[in-house]
Amino acid sequence: MNLDKLKTTDDIDVAGKRVIVRADLNVPIKNGKVTDATRLERVLPGVKALADRGAKVIVISHFGRPKSGPEAELSLKPIAEAMQKLLGRPVAFGEDCIGDAAAATVSGLKNGDVALLENLRFHKGEEKNDPKFAQELAKLGDIFVGDAFSCAHRAHASTEGITNYLPSFAGPLLMEEINALRTALEKPQRPTAAVVGGAKVSTKIPVLTNLVAKVDKLIIGGGMANTFLQAMGVMVGKSLAEPEFAGTARDIMTEAKAKGCEIILPVDVVIACEFKEGAAHEVVTLENVPFDAMILDVGPKSVERTASVIENSNTLLWNGPLGAFEISPFGEGTFALARAAAKLTKAGKLVSVAGGGDTVAALNAAGVTDDFTYVSTAGGAFLEWLEGKELPGVAALAREKVH
Predict the structure, then answer these.
(1) Which of 120, 140, 172 is the last residue of a domain?
(2) How is the beta sheet containing 268-272 ordered, strand by strand?
(3) Quick check: is 399 in a domain?
(4) Where do the H-state alpha helices sit in 232-331?
(5) 230 and 261 share one domain
(6) Is the torsion defined by CA of 361, 377, 386, 124 positive or negative?
(7) How many CA atoms lie within 13 A of 400 on its CB side?
């Protein structure tokens, strides 16, 4: 996947052209109203820029997981209304994304107009990457712009298939994501550190394996750290751990050593006998974890150590919390480290790139999201990128094609 071959629409004349923009409008909706417009706010500047240049902009997206055909509660209609408010201009809504209804909506557009078409997943051809469905979508446009990095790990008709039938370009949000990730992983300012947390080692083996070859320091937290500690002979009591992956953890540590990457694990931990808000808890060293207690966060010495690692780094990549941050007081380790990273970033001493659902929630809870260099809203695509996988939706935009 040659990312240098990705082209944007910056140098082409889009006036009068029908430009199909694949966005990710999977936003939370309650009682027919969008409750968090973050994803809309990120993608709409690119839509507005195309419209301002005289394009007829046709936005397409999936929403939720419809089981078989259209479902009223998974319609994109409320999202069209939210888009209209945020854009400050009318947004036409197409009752379907292909066929006569879609064609009628598109043919009614004048230069500078914007339309949103109905949920792509109301058609089985979308997730099957059916060439016929991709061709039906392509009929509606002259140009395709992929601007949904968070969906790029899926080879669907609207992310991969459509690129076979239209001149295809990378959108500004997708480029922003890719440039941020390349800065952190491919062309980083060294030394580099990564924080990888979360519940299970089993879900992040490829991420860890890829990162030990790329970064100088790898900070492991969350339930994953318990598995590594257990693999080193530490008794972790009733903590969440995966003893069956102890061998994998040891292999990753061996590989890290061979690659010159230092793995950093907690040196003290916060324990409790029950997992609930405000539970009685204490800080203990690793050799003092009681058999009936759970490790639920990293301790202050661990935070101090990891903060020092970040302070001596130029680039930081973050995926996953250090503890059970959703329940007070077990988010303090994550929040303290996040604040330290944010402070260094604001001072111009650190390039910090974070991503993944839990990570975004933790940074929001710590109040530092805006202070990081870049925070990706992508979940699966962000993880697959960290694993070193090729993302079909990005690779399709980078391929040379004759149309």
Answers:
(1) 172
(2) 281-285, 268-272, 294-298
(3) no
(4) 246-259, 300-311
(5) yes
(6) positive
(7) 3
For position 380, which CATH number holds? 3.40.50.1260
Structural contact between residues 154 and 125, judged by C-beta atoms closer than 8 angstroms: no
* Of 323, 279, 278, nearest in space to 300 by CA: 323
Tokens (6 digits) for 94: 């197409």
Question: Catalytic positions, please?
Answer: 39, 200, 357, 380
Whether the CB-CB separation of 57 and 21 falls below 8 Å is answered with: yes
Count of domains forming the chain: 2
Among 29-33, 188-192, 322-326, which is the least confidently predicted range?
29-33
What count of other Cβ atoms lies within 10 Å of the Cβ of residue 65?
A: 10
CA distance 158 to 164: 11
Tell the residue number behind the tokens 């302070």, with chain if given: 311
- Rounded to an integer, what distance in angstroms lies between the CA atom of residue 155 and that of residue 146? 12
Cα–Cα distance, 30 to 23 (Å, whole number) = 21
Q: Quote the CA–CA distance of 48 and 215 in Å, as a whole number.
A: 38
Is 196 in contact with 221 (CB distance < 8 Å)?
A: yes
pTM for the whole structure? 0.88
Is the previous residue joined to 329 through a cis bond, with omega within 30 degrees of 0?
yes
Give the pLDDT confidence of 191-239 residue by residue, as tens digits. 999 999 988 999 999 999 999 999 999 999 999 999 999 999 999 999 9
What's the one-letter identity of residue 65?
R
Q: What is residue 320's DSSP assignment?
A: S
Q: How many CB atoms lie within 10 A of CB 160?
A: 24
Same domain, 249 and 146: no
> DSSP letter at 112?
T
- Kindly write down the DSSP assignment for every residue of 62-100, as one continuous string: --S--SSS--GGG-SHHHHHHHHHHHTS-EEEES-SSHH
Element of type H or E holding 270: strand 268-272
Structure tokens at 62: 């999936």
